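User: hey, got a sec? need Myb/SANT-like DNA-binding domain-containing protein folded
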Amino acid sequence: MTSFSLDSAKRAKAFSDREIDVITDFIKTNIHKLRANHGSGGPGMVARVREIWSELIAGVNACGHGPRTLQQEKEKWRNL
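Assistant: Yep! Here you go:
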């Protein structure tokens, strides 16, 4: 019989209030750029959107509460 250990299922630390503030402020500032139609944005739009998301990752990770991935940050934004 196989036993399941909760230790093997690692969870990320909860987002701090500061991290949530950084995400919220960043999205409010850049929402129009992130929702821009890639077709109407012209050449390089995908790269620009990727760069914007990279700025968010850097800003949240600068808070010092552990490295966060883009997936974690997008999920947090969806759940706010």
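Quick note: Residues 14-79 form one domain. Let me know if you need anything else on Myb/SANT-like DNA-binding domain-containing protein.
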